[in-house]
Amino acid sequence: LALLAIVAVLLGVLLYVVAVQTSIGQSFEELVLWGRPTGDPEAIELAWRALGTLNLAVAAGATIGLAGLAIAWGRPLLAAGVIVAIAGANLTTQLLKAVILDRPNLVGSDAYAYGNSFPSGHVTLAASLALAALLVAPRRLRSLVALAGAAYVSVVGISTLTAGWHRLADALGAILVALAWTSLVPAIGAATPGAKPRRAGRAAAKK
């Protein structure tokens, strides 16, 4: 898990450098935006509906719900980890996008040259909630939760492009931010005494 977090960070840095800080990367990003279905009102409407499912109330409710499930299943440290992972991912994205990173206009296009949009806040929120749900889900349900989460994150990511809010790299970078946090937090938790579920503790005691 710790290695996965490091790889996610390195891939995020590489993605930012190539897609945002080079003219070739920016040109590709502009082509993707210009190719989105702007002439299809139904696609635009669906994109706005998908993006409308994410707001502060939804984020808070989902986070509290996931943490509550972890506590109900005897995993208080996991509950704390879920909160830290979701909050950490989203705060990191906001800091990166608004304060730390910039986007120079290297292709001379004014259509989408406004400010930095890397990484996407909406996709970060969707991905962090989906990955946190995967951490909390019982083993028998993890495959189903993983598929549902991947589908939802994909829909949100595509919707940000369709609505013209973000570029492709913004969505991919957001997923990597969420992956880094939701890998690092349980990696730390796994090394913390008492972090294992009660079932594992009972099994170890029997041995």
Kindly summarize this structure in a few lines.
By secondary structure, this protein is mostly helical. It is built from nine helices and no strands.
Pick out its properties.
single chain, 207 residues, 9 helices, globular
Description:
74% of the residues lie in helices and 0% in strands. With 207 residues, the chain is mostly helical. It starts with a helix and ends with a helix.
Topology:
Blueprint: H1 2-20, H2 23-34, H3 41-51, H4 56-72, H5 76-100, H6 121-136, H7 142-162, H8 168-190, H9 198-206
Gap from first CA to last CA: 26 Å
> How confident is the prediction overall: mean pLDDT?
87
Strands, count: 0
Helix/strand structural class? mainly alpha
- Largest sheet, described in full? none
What is the overall number of helices?
Answer: 9
- Residues in helices, as a percent range: over 70%
Give unreliable regions as ranges: 198-207
Radius of gyration: 19 Å
Instruction: Give the ordered list of helices and strands.
Output: HHHHHHHHH
Strand content: under 5%
Quick one: overall form? Answer: globular
